[in-house]
Amino acid sequence: MKIIILSLILGLTLLFADSCYSLDKAHLNAIGIQELKQEAPDFTIKGPDGNMMSLKDFMGKVVILHFWGTWCKPCKEEFPLFEKMYQRVKDKDVFFIPVSIDAKATQEDINAFAKRLGATFPVFLARDGNVTDRYWTWGVPVTYFVDKKGLIAGRAIGPRDWASDGVNAVINALLEEK
User: Fold this and answer.
1) DSSP, res 24
2) If pLDDT is split at 50, 70 and 90, which confidence band does 3 have?
């Protein structure tokens, strides 16, 4: 009898633990995002105001960390889709960090590049911090979704339709997380 009760308690505990995380694996699979659920390494990068910022500065928010390059054709094609996504989330507890891995570009170069593609969101330069030391970026585009607790919920390798209902569902699920 004790074994049955302990099994029931363990089962309910696992069921309850999963329900606290409202991001269903089906959400991720629907848009081709690899589920990770691992601690997000902290990093530093120069913010839009010129001061250094870190991932820890955004605890309690959903962070979308995206790596791209000005020479990357799929990255260029994604910018208008990211702009649509950004317009959906900019007033929510979401911080979008698109990081250029260009080795020779300046901050002014990537700002002008993003503006030409219609972006109103700030862009960041990987050289201005240690973000590429902490995250895998051998190819672009690659995008990480970090939940409000500082866990990497998932990673997308390659381009996506960032304005899709599927991406919106993933972001909303991360926002609803308890």
Assistant:
1) -
2) very low
Res 85 pLDDT > 80: yes
- Across the range 55-74, mean pLDDT stands at 96
CA pseudo-torsion sign 139, 31, 112, 133: negative
- The CB-side HSE value for 27 (13 A sphere, CA atoms) comes to 18
Q: How far is CA 152 from the centre of its chain?
A: 8
pLDDT of amino acid 22: 56
Q: Which residues are catalytic, by number?
A: 72, 75
* Residue ranges of domains in the chain, CATH in brackets: 24-176 (3.40.30.10)
Rounded Cα–Cα distance for residues 139 and 72 (Å): 10
* Encoded tokens for 87: 């317009």
Concatenated DSSP letters for the chain? -HHHHHHHHHHHHHHHHHHHS---HHHHHHTTPEEEEEEPPP-EEE-TTSSEEEGGGGTTSEEEEEEE-TT-HHHHHHHHHHHHHHHHHTTTTEEEEEEE--SS--HHHHHHHHHHTT--S--EETTSBSHHHHS--SSS-EEEEE-TTSEEEEEEES---TTSHHHHHHHHHHHH--
**What mean pLDDT is predicted for residues 6-29?**
48
Please list the residues that pair with 67 across neighbouring strands.
99, 142
